[in-house]
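Weekly structure sync, notes
Attendees: PL (lead), two postdocs, one rotation student
Agenda item 3: pending single-chain targets
PL asked that the sequence for the first pending target be pasted directly into the notes so everyone works from the same version. It is reproduced below exactly as submitted, 316 residues in total.
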Amino acid sequence: MVRFVVVVFLLCICAFSGSAQQIKRFNPDTVITITLDSPVVIRSARLSTQTFINKILNDTSFYQAFRDMMHYSFTAENRIFTYNKKNKVEGKIYRKIYHNNKGPYKMQFLTKQDSGKVFKKNGKYQLYTVEMFDYIFMNAYNSDFIASMEAPAVKGKGSNESYKDKLKTLIFRPGHPIKGIPFIGNKTAIFTPNMRQYYDYAFSSAMYLDTIPVYRFKVSVKPDLSGWTKDDLMIKEMVTIFDKRDLRILGRYIDMKWDNLAFDFDVQMNIEMAPFEDGETLLPTKITYQGNWDIAFKKQERASFLILHKGYKKEK
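Predicted structure, written out during the meeting:
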């Protein structure tokens, strides 16, 4: 069960691509969406570091973006790579899927390609990480996936179902404490008075998708901390992209690393959104994941994902 909880957690804390140390191996993400301009100092009377922190903590736009997908048909291109201990590609999965939301929802596979070590003899995925990917980013497009932002655990459900209910909340709540995750405690609540002393805050001006002016707000571990203190901080860097015009959040990135006797992981994850139709509706366009994780007495798992959504079409 610990295995399930940890993988759910690692796959579900979301963010926007930053400049932290990436895992050194092949990275399928070659799509550049943001161009940095220069560092900026926020001096506006209506803006402060706390303004941006409050926006992050109270944001519901990512939740709403995934909810709004049920009103659109679109094509998803999913690339998954798995790796051996030497970080050499061991398995490849490519899916091109048309999510048809015209009438009753239908998921139509346009392309399915697999190579290398992908499946077990029983037909299940070799890696639990990939199995969870299938759950999060395939079923996420079904309206049943997100019934409410904070779905409570339902009595009578198995433990796995209870953790999947938590997953629906975790994916939208960066910076909040995560209850029920072994050994993690409040390490994700990086904006509390106690945790803020360990982090630096920096702003940059940037351009997103060539046309949208944005602020890039980076929270990173202070470089002058002792090694022991740094090791005890799970979130190494968190980057959030804000539209300068209305401070809507368009993207999030998070870099996490943790190591103890029970498990260790090294994960970077990114989710990006873009406005469609009337310019108001935000929809997910890019999701990336790079991660290694190892739980005692279990096989180490190394994987990366690149998910691109294209051709959104509004359905009645």
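Discussion points:
- The two ends are 41 Å apart (CA to CA).
- The mean pLDDT is 79.
Action: rotation student to compare against the earlier draft before next sync.
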